[in-house]
Design goal:
Two copies of one chain form a homodimer. With 350 residues, the first copy, chain A, is of the alpha/beta class. Chain A has 14 helices and twelve strands. The structure holds a DNA duplex (30 and 30 nucleotides).
Chain lengths: 350, 350
DNA sequence: TAGCAAATTGTGACCGATCACAAGAGGAAA
DNA sequence: TTTCCTCTTGTGATCGGTCACAATTTGCTA
């Protein structure tokens, strides 16, 4: 180990050189309003000259803020993706969005992985909370649904943001306009002249999934397009299940000219079946995915998809959490706009 | 703000209940050898009963360890990927690998984004180092090449791991067997009966890229296959440049039956040109990419590729850094095995 | 059984911020 | 001028660990 560890410049160093008390230096770095402009400037100059940076651990000890935001991700999902060699840019986007927001305010982002099983998750979160005492915690799916976790955070008095939830209340809930996504996907297809639009639904147990379905339904109604319940595929998000459903649809003599898939796995199933049946996408069949993972962007052809504003959602969550821990209230529901990315899986109706 | 912040259980609480001094508790949680078994057990029981977790900020204040590992990523790359809507699972894999290693030892991983420009990078790293005082820093490309950064870390006395560097010395350098990758890719093709294997090289300015090329060359020699310098494409990693090169190769009457691409962008170019010329992969042409990004895994057909052990490399880096900060020496070069993932872009020679 | 070294346990200072509160300075009103 | 209030600045305690060192116990040798 290196014993020549560079000695840190402390607040007292700055204070004695600037000829003020340590508390005044503290006031300057915290932008306290009650400091004379002349004093503030002198102190700031000394800070710059010495290259002083406040030690975050000490700040946490003395005060009740840690300048840390904890982002919780699901371990199983991360592990599964890793095992499957599947690409997942979720964390990458979180990092980008989170840093953008945290950096300017002097905050840092700590990512932690916790288990899916609720009991385990609780113990793990409790441990890391006690250890780090973050100012805020971001819960991502599926943990945003876990009430035991939010209860724990409430008990600790730590602000909590949930991604994909839309309750608001005591939380900073950041979500996407799910119904709008279903609506826009359908509208895009309708604008292209499609009148026979089928929908591969996810699970009725996921509220967000149902909202997207509702959006699709609304568009159908608005445009007076036929709603056929046999064209609502119960796909449970899985590739194999979707294969069966789509095969049935497309083998029928009166088949849909466009399909909306609630997630990318099911969208892939459409690609697969179409290929088997000799249907060319987008010439014979248009396809929109409501999930924009790397797979969707790199398929052949690249799929038109609804892009979830992941980076923006995390940025919003961080911003809200920072505000909360600064005494401002930022609780509530924030619905962020999605983006319909038009690629090559959609074209005019045949 | 919630004023009902849960009061933390402190070391002194544990001490008074267990009937020992606070220092003894400290010894137990730090696995100090000089504690009687009976005392250790009694203290441990009290810790468990109270759910005591040491406060990391306090540990950092008192001691000279922070139990924090800093992982530095490049901001531009992250931003570019985000802008392009390109999938990048690098951070996701880092998180997985890093957590696996850190968690058990009570360490935490903090990701930071810093700018590519060397001067900016230095200031940013300096700031975050002063603030967080991590026990170790992981530098990823391109920052692993930046000597100003490593000098800075040396000055602060902070251990440093570099991903993709192979010097060792004062660092924990974690890399992949680059030459082996080029060799194995070529061997795989040779085993399939290919004798005309072309190579789309990256840039001669990147040592690792050149090593892969050397590996390819070695295999050619070992199998007495013809080495043709006009089949070494100078591709500079870019799609467009590669297009030109590959078009020339494949339009020639005596053309390669297999191509190795140094990165995924160039591999895509091969796919593209082959499609244009009506060549079917892998029937008419085999293709191996030396980079396994999501794009490569999801192309049509999915490409055979060399998979970089990202998660393992970060795990190794974390392990080394933790060892270093515990007084053990872990400096040196660690070359981790890659994996040749056989997918559907390679087949027997036509 | 004394004597001494090694193993075990305890004591109080300390890290570098913030907090609560006290003290001083300055300006307006009486 | 005096008084009082507000704005600004300073003082010392405090957070919860670790460190250095002192005190005690234990075990072994003579």
């Amino acid at each position: 180990m290196d014993l020549t560890r560079k000695k840190a410049v402390t607040m007292r160093d700055v204070a004695s050189i600037a000829g003020v008390s340590h508390q005044t230096v503290s006031r300057v770095i915290n932008n306290s309003p009650n400091v004379k402009a002349a004093v503030r400037e002198k102190v700031q100059q000394t800070i710059d000259a010495l290259g002083y940076v406040p030690n975050s651990a000490a700040r946490r000890m003395g005060g009740n803020r840690s300048y840390l935001i904890l982002a919780i991700n699901d371990r199983q999902r991360t592990y599964d993706n890793w095992r499957a060699g599947r690409g997942n840019d979720w964390v990458d986007q979180m990092l980008f969005g989170g840093m953008t927001e945290c950096e300017a305010r002097g905050y840092h982002l700590v990512f932690e992985l916790i288990d899916t099983q609720p009991e385990k998750a609780q113990g793990q979160l409790s441990k890391v909370i006690s250890e780090l005492r973050p100012d805020g915690v971001i819960l991502t799916p599926p943990h945003s649904e876990n009430a035991a976790l939010t209860d724990l955070l409430k008990e600790f008095g730590i602000a909590c943001a949930r991604i994909g939830k839309r309750e608001g209340g005591a939380f900073v809930d950041v979500c996407m306009d799910e119904a709008g996504a279903g609506f826009e996907a359908a509208r895009h297809l309708a604008d292209l002249g499609h009148r026979q639009i089928a929908y591969l639904a996810g699970s009725p147990f996921y509220g967000n999934s149902m909202m997207r379905l509702d959006g699709y339904r609304d568009l159908l109604q608005e445009r007076s397009l036929p709603f056929r319940s046999d064209w609502i595929g119960k796909g449970d998000f899985k590739f194999d299940t979707a294969i069966t459903v789509v095969k049935k649809w497309l083998s029928h003599k009166e088949c849909p000219t466009a399909i909306i898939a609630d997630n990318d796995q099911m969208a892939f199933a459409v690609l697969h079946v179409a290929d088997r049946l000799g249907l060319k996408i987008p010439r014979d069949l248009s396809l929109v995915s409501l999930e924009d993972t790397p797979g969707v962007r790199l398929s052949v052809p690249p799929m038109t998809a609804i892009r979830q504003p992941t980076a923006d959602m995390i940025a919003k969550a961080c911003g809200g959490l920072i505000a909360e821990s600064s005494g401002k209230s930022a609780r509530g529901k924030y619905e962020l706009p999605f983006e319909l990315v038009k690629r090559e899986s959609t074209a005019s109706a045949p």
